[in-house]
Amino acid sequence: TSLAITFARQGRSVILLEKSLKEPDRIVGELLQPGGVHALEQLGLRNCLEDIDAVRVKGYEVIYYGTGVEIPYPANAVGGEIPEARGRPFGGEIIDSRRPARRPRPEGRSFHHGRFIQQLRAAAMREENISLIESTVTDTIKSGWTGQVVGVEAENTKAGRKDIYFGHLTVLADGYASRFRKEFITHSPVSKSKFYGLELIDADLPRSMHGHVVLGQGAPVLLYQIGTHETRALVDVPEGTPTASHANGGVKEHLRRVVLPSLPKCVQSSFERALDDGKIRSMPNSWLPPSTQQVSGMVLLGDAMNMRHPLTGGGMTVAFNDVLMLRDLLSPAQVPDLGDTERVKNQMRTFHWRRKTLTSVINILAQALYSLFAANDPHLRALQLGCFRYFQRGGSCVDGPVGLLAGIIRQPLVLFYHFFAVALLAMWLMVQGSPLWRLPWTALSTVGVFWKACVVIFPFIFSEMRS
To answer: In the prediction, which pLDDT does 96 show?
Structure first.
């Protein structure tokens, strides 16, 4: 929808097909990081965050076995230019905690996904160059001679008919369960866990206006406010979790017996009420590396093209920054005729590599953090403890990682530095806590921890380097 609005404001004629115009009711897309808020503002759509009871987000609270540490968004993200014309707000930042604040602390927003989507649709309806139609796309139409995508077939269920729409460029963004992905890209999503979502009413969170990550014996739990009275709880349940098996009472009993006691005391009563209410919904947590777009006449975007674990809430930040970048790469000044498929494909190659300054950071960070936060072996648990102790050190040990997560710092090498700083700290903590007589064995274990850190992060780095 935001890309349709962007194209329309550039003077292009747009047909926007939506499967349903009813307000979506989903447990995804409820958090927009500061880098996403800034992108929305650059697109002229910041007003879509108004009048939906959105909640200001100032950072995170990480709770490790009952002990919490605040991780606020950094105040001093400075240095480097801000090349907004290239769709890269906050580009090239470094963190310098010695300098006084040069701008207010950035903030994110959390909200009901459906209310935000309705605001975007309302903005689209106000654009004269957009024809918004409620219809389900069922297939693409290709030229019999060249194979170029020239339009789509769609089913209008209300009118009881099938329609055909033609265009110079077809953009498909049909989400994580895309029906078109297999046809146009070679990668398939990998999902090893699910988020089970509850909506808590009047929950008393440990720190207001902060997202919460609760770490304990099991996989991580996310808590964040999405309205004045509503708080979303997302519980990660990996495949094959014994306590969530049918024989042990299923997921609901896992939430009651395992997850509920691990939550902060102030949240437990509202969590239990939501459990009793019985409205538990789920979504797969998927990993899908990005692909270069080289199909004539067609572009695949959003979760259909690239996904990462939603632990860090980076999906919509990536999406709006992609739109911001495409606004410039496919502008009439760069591509006067979207029917010029070779020119469009050249720009999409540029798009694939240029977006990595942000998306590779968010993608790799999400997958690496999940591996640590869902630790299921001694080496990962050592890295998990190292990560928490790293956050407790404060200063750049907090500003750097959360600046990456927020879409503010866009330097992959900064991610690499902090990840291995965590690994080295984890190794030092093992040595520091070891009796003298165990030091030789502890030293061997620290090598295993470093190797595990490499095994965690390098596959995701290599997947981002591929085209």
So the answer is: 43
The 3-state secondary structure of the chain reads CHHHHHHHHCCCCEEEEECCCCCCCCCCCCEECHHHHHHHHHCCCHHHHCCCCCEEECEEEEEECCEEEEEECCCCEECCCCCHHHCCCCCCCEECCCCCCCCCCCCEEECCHHHHHHHHHHHHHCCCCEEEEECEEEEEEECCCCCCEEEEEEEECCCCEEEEEECCCEEECCCCCCCCHHHHCCCCCEEEEEEEEEEEECCCCCCCCCEEEEECCCCCEEEEECCCCEEEEEEEEECCCHHHCHHHCHHHHHHHHHHHHHCCHHHHHHHHHHHHHCCCEEEEEEEECCCCCCCCCEEECHHHCCECCHHHCCHHHHHHHHHHHHHHHCCCCCCCCCCCHHHHHHHHHHHHHHCHHHHHHHHHHHHHHHHHHCCCCHHHHHHHHHHHHHHHCCCHHHHHHHHHHCCCCCCHHHHHHHHHHHHHHHHHHHHHCCCHHHHHHHHHHHHHHHHHHHHHHHHHHHHHHCC
Q: Whole-model pTM?
A: 0.90
Taking alpha carbons only, the member of 415, 420, 355 closest to residue 95 is 415
pLDDT at res. 466: 75
pLDDT at 92: 38
Note the pLDDT tens digit of each residue in 106-136.
Answer: 999 999 999 999 999 999 999 999 999 999 9
What percent of the chain is predicted at pLDDT more than 90? 83
Instruction: Give the Cα separation of 208 and 226 in Å (integer).
Output: 12
Separation CA 273–CA 266 (nearest Å):
13
Q: Residue 100 pLDDT more than 80?
A: no
The answer to whether residue 264 scores a pLDDT higher than 60 is yes
102-116, 240-254, 324-338: range with lowest mean pLDDT: 102-116
